[in-house]
From TrEMBL:
It holds the Pfam family Phosphorylase. Keywords: Allosteric enzyme, Carbohydrate metabolism, Cytoplasm, Glycosyltransferase, Pyridoxal phosphate, Transferase. One of its GO terms (biological process) is glycogen catabolic process. It comes from the Bacteria. This is Alpha-1,4 glucan phosphorylase. It is found in: Cytoplasm. The modification N6-(pyridoxal phosphate)lysine is found at residue 673. The gene is glgP. It comes from Sphingobium indicum (strain DSM 16413 / CCM 7287 / MTCC 6362 / UT26 / NBRC 101211 / UT26S). CDD domains: GT35_Glycogen_Phosphorylase. Phosphorylase is an important allosteric enzyme in carbohydrate metabolism. Enzymes from different sources differ in their regulatory mechanisms and in their natural substrates. However, all known phosphorylases share catalytic and structural properties. Allosteric enzyme that catalyzes the rate-limiting step in glycogen catabolism, the phosphorolytic cleavage of glycogen to produce glucose-1-phosphate, and plays a central role in maintaining cellular and organismal glucose homeostasis.
């Protein structure tokens, strides 16, 4: 008998993994699941059949993992994130289930090229940048280190957007990744929940109810329906669940209105529900956009909390033991409303008194902060929050009353500090601070790099840290090397394996054994050959996609990340303009041939970020067509950056640009992916760059610019960018060229305001760091001229990156925060 008292059926024999068996299963699925024979099958049919064959083995491990979790009756982790940038899953799952080579052989026997069909799998449009990719790495690592976990998010129909470049400008188009279905997901209609918005709150009608027990009567309801995707860990040790919510109307069509001729009005409820899960990060520059963002965040948080509580009651009975069995991690502030939602469920649905409910809530939640930017610590206008979530607004006020009372009783806070701790921002328009709610409602608050964590204590959460000095801790981010070395850089993976054996596949820190080969000329030659092959592959891809002609012999200098002023793509472009001028002015110098590649998306309403993309294109057009620099400098913006494109660009990179304003990047994970793939980093002492320098050695990383402390000092004591620009001839000339229309002859004033912002305030210290950055780039040139030296430094980077595995990060979360054995 199983836990539910049902008869346990005999388990089927484990499926074999060998080419002959796999080939038979692929043809069988092609015939009976897709309705094609091998002769008529198209590449997408083969892809679907292959996924089904892999999926069967993943499902076997998935069911076994679930059964093991229920038998152990231990604590389960629930990871709430608005993004999960999982990318393509076919190779990932096959590799983790240790069947990739056999699958390749099986397909070869059928006359099918695995690379061709793998390229047809769409990237899941479930995220945008580092936050979502981190969540994906964490899901894989949780399965790998045997942490039972659910990931909870939204099943976006169109994701953020598909980026195209038209006349140099970003154009946002729907990302139609679900058009032909998703064979990895399973609809779970039986686990659907109602989600309410608006309405009113009445006293409870239960005579035994406490004074805090109320009844919320929403004016609007939608259905949250889950779709489950299995996430396999390395060697199939565990398979966890990614549960994504889709919004559906309660009444898909108001038939009486339709029959009366109001065809559009009849679909109003359906359209409003579908809008909830259509787009990631709808523009919040308008009131309607803000409302949709808040609706999305509450929708997935409420559905996830209802699911967690339902599962807990089903298996453990007593809601009061929830913290003993569930550890809920909030990935940034997007799911912070879950704190108020759990309080509502405890108070109104289960009759728990307020103080006990708050204790249960805080012991259940933990919160990861990802930013020090005030605008990224979400807040919502009180009228909007109260109109959409009236019961939650009551709870926020009640929690705030206790929180501020606790702070005042401590005797260590003045009115300013009390105001900073408050869940309500009283400065100007009153707003609900979601970062403060997440902090107050969690027993653990972690940063994602050592520097970021210390800055949290000193800046955005300084007063909270004084009130709760033991709550903030650090968990430096990591990446999964299964995806970011073994799969995306097969040549380097095989070279490392040949040199040091297989142990690093299970213990990434064993990569350190590669150190002894850093100065071995024969190994260096093989290493550089692998890098060149990756560069040739990227050059071929760019020729196909954007008709770019780039030389694989050149230094590939790559910056790929979300387009934002603090990430300073603008600094990179200005330095490219300066380099362009220097090459033309001094042709006699021994310049290093360099290809500067950019990729990333700008938020649709972020004007300056979109202008930076346009500037990159304008500079590229001028530089790439100037015969005076042919072969010495190329600039290219690569559209629609996503996981699959990263898997091509990162292995091909020689130089990794990690040049954010110091103190503003929480961690970064692209920096780790580049380094383990043999790229040198040029960067500021920001985020995880600090710890990377400590691990790889300061001689193997190129650091420049102001430190976080120096940035703060300049901002505090008066910084005059005009004076700095006046003292830098190269910077002044580059800015003048951009501002005067040299690169935009069709619209000479296009970049005037962008440049004027540097002259007037330069909040992101572009001018302050320019000379140091330019000098660092010339140091890079010097290293490149000595290819043996370059190879040695690059190999040391690969060897010393093992600590930055997401497996290590997850073990730290499990031990220190979630209290789950690993």
């Amino acid at each position: 008998m199983n836990l539910k008292g049902q008869t346990t059926l005999p388990k089927p024999a484990p499926r074999q993994v060998d080419p002959q068996v796999l080939a038979h299963e692929i043809v069988e699925r092609l015939t009976y699941r897709i309705g094609k024979n091998a002769t008529a099958a198209k590449p997408h049919d083969w892809l679907h059949a292959v996924i089904l064959a892999i999926r069967d083995r993943v499902i076997d491990a998935w069911i076994a993992s679930t059964e093991k979790t229920y038998e152990q009756q231990g604590r389960r982790v629930y990871y709430l994130s608005l993004e999960f940038l999982i990318g393509r899953l076919m190779r990932d799952a096959a590799s983790n289930m240790e069947m990739l080579d056999d699958m390749q052989a099986a397909l070869s026997s059928l006359g099918v090229d695995i690379d061709i069909i793998a390229a047809l799998e769409p990237d899941a449009a479930l995220g945008n940048g580092g936050l979502g990719r981190l969540a994906a790495c964490f899901m894989e690592s949780m399965a790998t280190v045997d942490v039972p976990a659910y990931g909870y998010g939204i099943r976006y129909v169109n994701g953020m957007f598909r980026q195209e470049i038209s006349d140099g400008w970003q154009v946002e188009l729907p990302e139609t990744w679900l058009t032909h279905g998703n064979p990895w997901e399973f609809e779970r209609r039986e686990a659907s929940y109602e989600i309410g918005f608006g309405g009113r709150v009445d006293p409870s009608e239960n005579e035994d109810a406490s004074q805090h027990q109320m009844r919320w009567r929403p004016a609007e309801r939608v259905i949250a329906t889950p779709y489950d995707t299995p996430i396999a860990g390395w060697r199939g040790k565990r398979v966890n669940t990614l549960r994504l919510w889709e919004a559906q109307p309660i009444d898909p069509i108001l038939l009486d209105r339709f029959n009366a001729g109001d065809h559009l009005g009849a679909l109003t409820e359906s359209n409003r529900a579908e809008a909830l899960t259509r787009v990631l990060y709808p523009a919040d520059s308008s009131p309607a956009g803000q409302e949709l963002r808040l609706r999305q965040e509450y929708f997935f948080s409420s559905a996830s909390l209802q699911d967690i509580v339902r599962r807990h009651i089903q298996y453990f009975g007593d809601i009061r033991t929830l913290p003993d069995k569930a550890a809920i991690q909030l990935n940034d502030t997007h799911p912070a409303v879950a704190v108020a939602e759990l309080m509502r469920i405890l108070l109104d649905n289960h009759g728990v008194d307020f103080d006990e409910a708050w204790d249960i809530t805080r012991r259940t939640f933990s919160y990861t902060n990802h930013t020090l930017l005030p605008e990224a610590l979400e807040s919502w206008p009180v009228p909007l929050f109260e109109r959409l979530l009236p019961r939650h607004m009551q709870i926020v006020y009640a929690v705030n009353s206790r929180l501020l009372g606790e702070a005042r009783r401590s005797g260590q806070f003045d009115d300013r500090a009390i105001g900073a701790i408050s869940l309500i921002d009283e400065g100007g328009e009153r707003r609900v601070r979601m970062g403060n709610l997440a902090f107050a409602g969690s027993h653990s608050v972690n940063g994602v790099s050592a520097l970021h964590t210390e800055l949290m204590k000193e800046t955005v959460f300084a007063d909270f840290h004084r009130l709760y000095p033991a709550r903030i801790n650090n968990k430096t981010n990591g990446v999964t090397f299964r995806r970011w070395l073994m799969q995306c850089n097969h040549g380097l993976f095989e070279l490392v394996r040949e040199a040091i054996g297989d142990r690093f596949m299970d213990d990434p820190e064993a990569l350190r054994e590669l150190d002894r080969f850093a100065d071995d000329s024969a190994f260096q030659e093989k290493f550089l050959a692998v890098k060149r092959a990756n560069k040739v592959a990227l050059a071929d891809l760019l020729r196909q996609r954007v008709n770019a002609r780039i030389d694989p012999s050149a230094l590939f200098d790559i910056q790929i990340k979300r387009i934002h002023e603090y990430k300073r793509q603008l600094l990179n472009i200005i330095e490219a303009v300066s380099l362009y001028d220097q090459i033309r002015s001094h042709p006699e110098k021994d310049w290093v041939p360099r290809v500067k590649l950019f990729g990333g998306k700008a938020a649709p309403s972020y004007h300056n970020a979109k202008l930076i993309i346009k500037l990159a294109g304008d500079v590229a057009r001028a530089v790439n067509h100037d015969p005076a620099v042919q072969g010495l400098l190329k600039v290219q913006f690569v559209p629609n950056y996503n996981v699959s494109l990263a898997e091509m660009m990162i292995p091909a990179a020689d130089l990794s640009e990690q040049i954010s304003t110091a103190g503003m990047e929480a961690s970064g994970t692209g920096n780790m992916k580049f380094a383990v793939n043999g790229a040198l980093t040029i960067g500021t002492l920001d985020g995880a760059n600090v710890e990377m320098r400590d691990h790889v050695g300061e001689e193997n990383i190129v650091i420049f610019g102001l430190t976080a402390a120096q940035v703060n000092e300049r901002r505090a004591h008066g910084y005059d960018p005009r004076e700095v620009i006046g003292q830098s001839r190269e910077l002044g000339q580059a800015l003048d060229a951009i501002a005067s229309g040299v690169f935009s002859p069709d619209d000479p004033g296009r970049y005037r305001d962008l440049v004027q912002g540097i002259y007037d305030h330069d909040w992101f210290m572009v001018a302050a760091d320019f000379d140091s950055y330019s000098a660092a780039q010339r140091r890079v040139d010097g290293i490149w001229h000595d290819q043996a030296l370059w190879a040695s430094k690059a190999i040391h980077n690969v060897a010393r990156m093992g600590w930055f595995s997401s497996d290590r990060t997850i073990r730290e979360y499990a031990t220190d925060i979630w209290k789950v054995p690993v």
